[in-house]
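Deliverable D2.4 — example input (C-alpha cells):
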C-alpha cells in the first residue's frame, strides 16, 4: 500500500550504546533527546529489512510494551518508521503488552519479529527497548552487533504518518490479552481448573505493581477462572506507582523489598495462591498459604510436574532443564528423578550465562536468578504462566506451596539462596572490582569473615550442542569452606553507574533451617573479602532481607 514517507536528515547523530542482555536501558532523558528514538528505531528497521532481503515488504512485526512514561508515544514513533520500511506493524490496544504476550504473538501470527518497550523491573525514570526475532526469542549476539552498527551509521530517518498508516492498513491493532489468555487456556484447561476452584473455594491475591500485568491477570484469574481474588495495584500507570516515602521512584520488581501489602496478605495464610509480577510480566514471585516459593525451587517443582503441560511433546530427543549459572542449582539436584520421568528422552540440566536468550535457544524451559521462569510454549520468561502453573499443581494435588516444596526437599535437600548487589557510580570503582575478582584465585587459603576461600575462578559457557565456548567469563565463582559459594557478575540492565550482582548459595539436606543463619556467613565473608582489598562498599539489598521465613530466624 502507498503511504506518505518523509525523510529526515540526521545533522548530529547520537552515539547509541549496544543493547545488552535485555535491550538498551537508559534514563528517560537519553531516549528523549532529539531524534535519539528515531535513530534507534531506524537501525532496527534497517536490520529487519536487511535480514528479510527481498521478502521484507508486508512482513509482520509485533510492537508493544509496558505502560511507563512516554511509551505510548514511542510505540507510535517506532510504528511510523517500521511501516515506512514496508513492514505490516501489529500493535496491541494502547500499545500495552507483556513481554511473554509479544513473544507468543510473534510465533502465533508468524511475524518476522518484534520490538518490546520495557525497562522491566527498573523504575519509570528508565526506558528500555529490545528486539525479538521470528522465534519469539530475544535477538542473539550477532544480531545485536549488526543492529548496533546500523543504528550508529544511520544518517536519514524515513517515517510515515501514524494515522495515515493506520487508515492504509499498514498498522493493525490486535487484542493481545485474548490471544495470550487463549494460549494459557489451551495449555492448562481453564474449564477444568475453574470447576475445582469453585468446588474448593480457592482464593488468590495478585500484585500487578501498576505495570502491564493488570489487564492480563484480570482476564485470566477473574474473567476466565472466576476466582475470588484480591487485585492489588492493578491499573497500568505511566509512573508505575510513583515514589516511595523517601521520594525515590518505586521499582516494579517482584522482590520482598517491594511488595509489603502482598506479604501481609499472604502471611495471614488464608489465600491459596499469591503472586506479584514486574512491569512487563516476565518476572514473578509466587506463593500462597503463608509461604513464598523461590524461582529455582519453583522451577524444580514445575519440572517434577511437567507432565501436566505435556512437556515431552514440546522437545525432540533431548529435554533441556536450564538455569543461569548464578541461579541456585535446585533443578540439578533432581536430575536423576527427571530422567526416570522421561525414559525415552535424553534429559540434561544445563548451566547458561545470564540472559534468557541462552535458555530460549535451548527450548526456553529454564529459570534465572531474578525470579524469571521460562515457558516452553514461547521464547521468553513468563510470570503469569508460572503463577497459573503453580495454581494448576495446587488444584491437582490439594497441597499448599510449602507442602509441595517440602516433598521435593525431603528427597533432594534444599539450596539456601539469596542475591544482593554492590553498586556505585564511578567506572574506576568498577575496574578495581573487576581486577579484584579476576585475581581472586591468588587469595585462596585465606580467611574472610569466618570462612576460608578454597577456590576462585571465572565461569565459561560451553554450548551443549556445539561443544564450543559460547560465552567467556560469564560469572566469577568464589567457593568458601563448608560448602558456601558466592558468585558475582556485573549487571547489564542498569541505566547508569555499575551494579555487581552477588549470589550466595549453600546446599543442606536439612531443609528446615532458618535461612538467614545460613546466608549470613557468606555475606560477611564477601564483605570481608572486599574490605581486605580496600573496598569500603558492602554488598547490600539482599533478597532475603525482608523475606518471611516459615522456619524462623533473622
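Example output (designed residues):
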Amino acid at each position: 500500500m502507498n503511504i506518505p514517507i518523509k525523510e529526515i536528515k540526521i545533522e548530529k547523530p547520537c552515539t547509541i550504546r549496544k543493547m545488552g542482555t535485555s535491550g538498551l536501558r537508559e534514563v528517560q532523558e537519553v531516549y528523549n533527546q532529539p531524534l535519539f528514538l528515531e535513530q534507534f528505531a531506524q537501525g532496527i528497521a534497517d536490520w529487519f529489512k536487511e535480514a528479510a532481503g527481498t521478502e521484507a515488504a508486508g512482513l509482520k512485526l509485533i510492537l508493544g510494551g509496558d505502560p511507563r512514561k512516554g511509551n505510548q508515544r514511542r510505540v507510535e514513533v517506532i510504528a511510523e518508521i517500521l511501516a515506512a520500511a514496508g513492514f505490516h506493524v501489529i500493535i496491541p490496544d494502547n500499545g500495552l503488552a507483556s513481554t511473554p504476550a509479544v513473544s507468543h504473538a510473534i510465533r502465533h501470527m508468524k511475524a518476522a519479529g518484534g520490538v518490546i518497550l520495557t525497562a522491566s523491573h527498573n523504575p519509570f525514570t528508565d526506558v528500555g527497548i529490545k528486539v525479538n526475532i521470528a522465534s519469539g526469542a530475544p535477538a542473539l549476539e550477532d544480531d545485536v552487533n549488526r543492529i548496533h552498527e546500523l543504528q550508529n551509521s544511520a544518517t536519514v530517518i524515513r517515517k510515515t504518518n501514524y494515522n495515515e498508516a493506520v487508515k492504509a492498513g499498514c498498522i493493525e491493532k490486535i487484542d493481545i490479552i485474548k490471544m495470550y489468555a487463549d494460549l494459557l487456556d489451551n495449555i492448562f484447561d481453564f474449564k477444568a481448573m475453574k470447576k475445582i476452584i469453585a468446588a474448593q473455594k480457592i482464593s488468590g491475591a495478585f500484585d500487578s505493581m501498576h505495570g502491564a500485568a493488570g489487564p492480563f491477570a484480570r482476564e485470566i484469574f477473574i474473567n476466565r477462572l472466576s476466582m475470588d481474588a484480591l487485585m492489588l495495584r492493578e491499573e497500568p500507570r505511566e509512573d508505575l506507582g510513583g515514589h516511595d516515602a523517601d521520594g525515590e521512584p518505586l521499582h516494579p520488581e517482584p522482590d520482598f523489598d517491594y511488595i509489603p501489602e502482598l506479604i501481609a496478605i499472604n502471611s495471614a495464610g488464608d489465600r491459596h495462591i499469591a503472586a506479584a509480577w514486574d512491569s512487563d510480566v516476565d518476572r514473578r514471585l509466587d506463593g500462597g498459604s503463608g509461604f513464598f516459593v523461590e524461582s529455582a525451587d519453583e522451577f524444580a517443582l514445575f519440572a517434577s510436574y511437567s507432565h501436566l503441560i505435556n512437556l515431552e511433546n514440546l522437545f525432540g530427543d533431548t529435554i533441556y532443564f536450564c538455569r543461569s549459572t548464578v541461579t541456585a542449582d535446585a533443578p540439578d539436584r533432581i536430575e536423576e528423578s527427571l530422567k526416570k520421568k522421561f525414559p525415552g528422552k535424553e534429559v540434561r540440566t544445563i548451566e547458561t550465562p545470564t540472559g534468557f536468550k541462552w535458555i530460549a535457544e535451548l527450548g526456553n524451559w529454564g529459570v534465572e536468578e531474578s525470579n524469571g521462569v521460562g515457558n516452553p510454549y514461547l521464547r521468553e520468561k513468563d510470570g503469569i504462566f508460572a503463577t497459573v502453573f503453580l495454581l494448576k499443581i495446587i488444584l491437582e494435588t490439594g497441597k499448599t506451596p510449602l507442602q509441595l516444596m517440602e516433598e521435593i526437599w525431603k528427597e533432594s535437600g534444599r539450596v539456601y539462596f539469596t542475591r544482593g548487589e554492590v553498586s556505585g557510580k564511578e567506572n574506576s570503582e568498577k575496574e578495581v572490582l573487576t581486577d579484584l575478582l579476576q585475581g581472586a584465585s591468588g587469595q585462596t587459603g585465606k580467611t574472610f569473615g569466618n570462612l576460608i576461600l578454597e577456590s576462585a575462578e571465572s565461569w565459561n559457557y560451553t554450548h551443549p550442542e556445539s561443544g564450543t565456548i559460547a560465552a567467556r567469563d560469564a560469572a566469577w565463582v568464589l567457593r568458601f569452606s563448608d560448602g558456601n559459594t558466592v558468585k558475582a557478575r556485573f549487571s547489564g540492565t542498569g541505566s547508569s553507574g555499575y551494579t555487581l550482582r552477588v549470589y550466595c548459595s549453600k546446599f543442606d539436606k536439612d531443609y528446615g533451617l532458618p535461612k538467614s543463619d545460613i546466608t549470613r556467613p557468606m555475606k560477611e565473608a564477601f564483605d570481608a573479602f572486599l574490605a581486605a582489598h580496600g573496598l569500603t562498599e558492602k554488598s547490600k539489598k539482599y533478597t532475603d532481607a525482608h523475606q518471611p521465613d516459615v522456619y524462623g530466624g533473622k
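The chain has three domains: 5-174, 179-412, 414-531.
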